[in-house]
UniProtKB/TrEMBL annotation:
This is DUF692 domain-containing protein. It holds the Pfam family MbnB_TglH_ChrH. It comes from Sphingorhabdus contaminans. The lineage of its organism: Bacteria, Pseudomonadati, Pseudomonadota, Alphaproteobacteria, Sphingomonadales. InterPro entries: MbnB/TglH/ChrH (IPR007801), Xyl_isomerase-like_sf (IPR036237). Coiled coil: none annotated. PANTHER family: UPF0276 PROTEIN HI_1600.
Amino acid sequence: MSGAHSTMSVFAPNAGPNGLPPGVGIGLKRAHCEALLADPSLVDFVEIHAENFMSAGGPNLILLDRIAEAWPLSIHGVGLSIGGKERLDREHLHRLRKLIDRTSPASFSEHLAWSSHDGVYFNDLLPVVYDTPTLNRVIVNINEAQDFLGVRMLLENPSTYVAFSASSWHEAEFLQQIAQSTGCGLLLDVNNLYVSCYNHDWSAQDWLSHITLDLVGEIHVAGHEAIQDAEGQTLLIDSHGDPVGEPVFELLEHVITRGGIRPVLVERDNDIPPLSVLLQETDQVRQIIERTAYAAVL
């Protein structure tokens, strides 16, 4: 762990440090907006992708204002390229800052990944090497982002399909060190954790033992699909287009039992089903929360 850069970001203490309620939210899709806005009580909070609301004006931002007025809002970024080797894109930071100033979100999050290089943007979240130079670079980038945006960031654990021989850190310890060095929190994507553990033959319980669950400000659950690789081995893919699987719900219950109730978001970004289907999944999450809360008082 020696050699890690540890200069902590300084940002306004009241600026977005996870004001999400400890309930169940949904990743908001346009097809569901009007039905949910007609009855906001169906969910406790909503999450939007920042890059979908970076227009200069018009009906897009009018809708955003209605959303921000109806629920506590989580803004989830996918384009900062926190793990990239280049400086953060200042124009992108400016657009994010405008969005944050407009909506005063309860939470802002990004990914431990890179998605751009030399001015080229990729339609994917690409993995980083878990070594000390990468660690120090990510720390610098998060400090810059938090200082510029004036909010605390939650950093999401990735789903991975390859492991780099150059990696010298355990993934969870890598995330833990970033959080300790920058003051950021963690967004624990339970589906990503399950997918990575399956693909790399890790133990999820061991992975969780390497982080402080108090750092977790939000949890995501989503679906995945199984494919066969070139050698005929099963590989899990974080598709966000399938129902949340029972193993992911079981891992969620383990996390909440160990770390306490957190805001939990149900994600579905592809093959969007009717709202009623997603609300069945939010009900399953509520049942897990209620069950763990009841067990805690026995």
